Amino acid sequence: MDGNKDESERCISIALRSIAAGDKEKARRFLQKAEKLFPSKKAADLLHSLDNGAQNGEARFNDQSYARKRKTSLPKESSQEKENVPADYTSEQLAAVKRINGCKDVYQVLEVSKDFSESDLKKAYRKLALQMHPDKNKAPGATEAFKSVGKAYSILSDKEKRRQYDLYGPEMQPSRPSREHQEYSNGFDGDISPEELFNMFFGGGFPSGNLNRRGHHHTSRRTYYTYREPQQSESGLSLFFQLAPILLLVVLSMLSSFLVSDAVFSLQRTDKYRIERKTANLHINYYVKDDFRAEFKSDLRRIERAVEEEYIGQLRGNCFRERNYKENMMWRARNYGDARLYQKAMDMTTPSCDNLQKVYAS
């Protein structure tokens, strides 16, 4: 009897391993054999659970298979969803970006002929700068295209840079290894950034700082080497000769400040220029110092002519800025279809231009 009990336990152990391996038929056979050899509650319970749980287990097995299939299909579905997400740029925008980035010639970038007019150049720049601006065009490479448009305009709008470009091509420098020409580099590294140029055209004002970054870079590099050389040299005389030009410049600048005399007049009232006068010809107000009459009475006609020329020059500059700002605002309004902005541009006054007309009419 004890031998049958041991054999029954062995059959139960085999049945448990078969259940774990998923072989239910083999487990059932060994459980039935264990019951014949030595009936026990453990074998009966396992057999009962196996018989009653066959259908439930099959259902669970199917659920688990479905869950595994669902899990493996999720990445595909999410990748499909990802592919179906619409791009935030159009095919036309991408094509325009590729065209500009593929151009090697600044005339091709702006799509202008070599005999273009100033209005043609501005019109081409406005159109492409708005199309390529990173805030409006999200296509890959739009930022590089925007920079290329700005740099192309900076070359073609400058007579000297354009002449250099027409002579030497994109490198804009002759082949001889002159230090000056090496530092000039190519015209695409302009004195003004594409973003600053864009702001000038589209109402961002007129930039005044950080426009000569290339020059500052070379200056700092030359200063560095000037500083290193005295450390490498043990001669105090060498240090003196290196500092002598700097000291000479300091002395000359101090002397020039003493030698330069004050201006004869000012168009604005200040503490120094307090006496108000008016030109005899155009009746332009200007201000002089207290000793003006005694010192410059004989040159009065020449001085008043200089006053009028400076006044008209200021009006011309301000008139150009006012008209350019108004024109750019109207252009932007038409491009974006903004009726309110267009009306605002139309209502904008140009006082300097009006004053200039009055001067010419008088």
UniProtKB/TrEMBL annotation:
Keywords: Endoplasmic reticulum, Membrane, Transmembrane, Transmembrane helix
Intracellular or extracellular location(s): Endoplasmic reticulum membrane
Gene Ontology biological process terms, A to Z: cellular response to misfolded protein
Membrane topology summary: Single-pass membrane protein
GO molecular function: Hsp70 protein binding
Pfam family, one: DnaJ
Region (Disordered): 49-87
Organism domain of life: Eukaryota
Principal subcellular localization: endoplasmic reticulum
Domain annotation J: ranges: 105-169
Transmembrane segments: 239-265
PROSITE patterns assigned: DNAJ_1, DNAJ_2
GO CC term, one of those recorded: endoplasmic reticulum membrane
InterPro entries, sorted: DnaJ_domain, DnaJ_domain_CS, DnaJ_subfamily_B/C, DUF1977_DnaJ-like, J_dom_sf
PANTHER family given in the database record: AT29763P-RELATED (PTHR43908:SF3)
Protein name (database record): J domain-containing protein
Species, as recorded: Elysia chlorotica
